[in-house]
Write a structure and sequence with these properties.
ten-stranded antiparallel beta sheet, 19 strands, Tick-borne Encephalitis virus Glycoprotein, domain 1, 9 helices, alpha+beta, TATA-Binding Protein
């Protein structure tokens, strides 16, 4: 058991885990996240694509290895902190008055021909040193502690890392990240999480009222705006979702990620001498007389600049189907027995599809708290170093011998300068 605990508390394990997290975080940043499996096989090749999918690098921050590494890192940090805590507590509680006056660290001596009572008063009242009350052989011992609490400041940093790791684990286990795709006028609560096949259903709905795209003069997209309505039972909330201006509702954040444009074909249909205008798109089939279903299979823009739509007409009664191509200005006629149907493309209008990235991260508060604690902890570690100064006053026949000394956690080189400054004050003022 001791070997296991020693391994979990080792610095080598901490460094290894840190590099694993850093390495795979790089992959998680460079590789597109949340794409279908086929995307990686096509873009990166069969071998590399399978490797990416095997290690779940397509959803790196929600993968099993990422959770396991965070969990091990948390255990390592906790055990290391608990092991070192008694040492830090001992330093924090150590009584500075217990030091041997003849063994003061970094000792510096000076001789003064002044009254010992005046010197002691100056040390106590002006320099704010505390006099050791117990009897000191042949003299008087004074001490002053600075930032004693800072012996524990490193644990504020450790605690901050614990908060960040816990927040990350909570976000991975109980949170999600995925896409919500909405067509203008559509209402949905179905989220497709990255790296998973099963959808997540929210307890409220989002309706896309209108999607607007603003363009630069050169035709490049400038801004995407989704005008949406949150529908939560009898409550409705209107909102705008823009790039870098997400919508947050019930701790779920909706980001404007992308968009797509689906053309709607305005077609005229003439059958049995009757003509009507319909709208056909790739979302839903178009039904005629409860007998024929018209499907838009695909569409493309010809080199001449005009759109060509491939449609499929299916007879519901017989299952017979025919395929044809719609081109603006050119009628398409199909025959089902004695019935003749003529199609004409009258025009095209865009139907916008808004792609929203949806994120739920219940651990984000802990992560923010962790960053605040880390900043405070690092400030305490590097700017509030614990230091202790001693002054030992020893009268003799030729005057007063004063021994100055100090100890610090890191600033050992600067202690000499501070002791010299303290000696000058005693020589001048006391």
């Amino acid at each position: 058991m001791k070997k296991i605990v020693d391994f979990l508390a080792s610095a080598k394990l901490a460094i290894t885990l840190f590099f694993i997290l850093a390495l795979f975080s790089i992959f998680g940043t460079l590789l597109p996240q949340g794409q279908p499996a086929q995307f990686y096989l096509i873009k990166y090749g069969k071998t590399l694509g399978k490797f990416i999918l095997l290690l779940h690098l397509n959803n790196a921050y929600y993968s099993w290895w990422y959770v396991a590494t965070l969990f091990l890192f948390l255990i390592n940090l906790t055990i290391c902190s608990l092991r070192r805590l008694p040492i830090s507590l001992k330093l924090f509680k150590w009584d500075s008055s217990e030091i041997d006056p003849d063994k003061i660290p970094n000792k510096m001596s000076l001789k003064l021909n002044k009254d010992v009572t005046r010197i002691n008063a100056f040390i106590s009242n002006v320099l704010n040193f505390k006099k050791v009350e117990k009897e000191i052989k042949e003299g008087y011992l004074f001490f002053r502690d600075f930032n004693r609490w800072s012996y524990l400041s490193v644990y504020i940093v450790h605690l901050s890392l614990v908060f960040i790791l816990l927040g990350g684990l909570i976000g991975v286990i109980w949170g999600f990240k995925g896409n919500l795709v909405l067509i203008e006028g559509e209402t949905s609560n179905q989220i497709m999480p990255f790296g998973k096949k099963e959808p997540i259903f929210l307890d409220f709905y989002l309706k896309l009222n209108k999607f607007t795209i603003e363009l630069y003069p050169n035709g490049m997209p400038k801004e995407y705006i989704s005008n949406v309505t949150v529908i939560d039972k009898n409550k409705k909330i209107d909102a705008l979702i823009k790039v870098n201006h997400p919508l947050q509702y019930k701790n779920i954040t909706f980001y404007q990620a992308s968009y797509d444009e689906v053309p709607q074909f305005i077609i005229s249909i003439e059958k049995n001498g009757k003509k009507e205008i319909k709208t056909l798109d790739s979302m839903l089939p178009l039904n005629i007389d409860n007998k024929y279903d018209i499907f838009l299979d695909t569409y493309m823009r010809h080199q001449g600049g005009f759109l060509v739509a491939k449609i499929r007409i299916v007879n519901e009664d017989t299952g017979e189907q025919q395929i044809g191509f719609l081109v603006e200005g050119k009628p398409l006629t199909v025959n089902f027995g004695n019935e003749k149907i003529t199609f004409n493309m009258e025009g095209v209008k865009p139907l916008y599809m808004s792609i929203l990235q949806v994120k739920k991260d219940p651990g984000v508060v802990l992560v923010y708290l962790g960053f605040i604690c880390m900043i405070l902890g690092l400030l305490a570690v590097y700017f509030f170093e614990p230091k202790t100064f001693w002054i030992y006053v020893k009268p003799d026949n030729k005057g007063v011998l004063i021994n100055l000394g100090a100890k610090a956690k890191r600033e050992r080189d600067t202690l000499i300068l501070k002791l010299q400054d303290l000696a000058k004050k005693l020589e001048k003022e006391a």
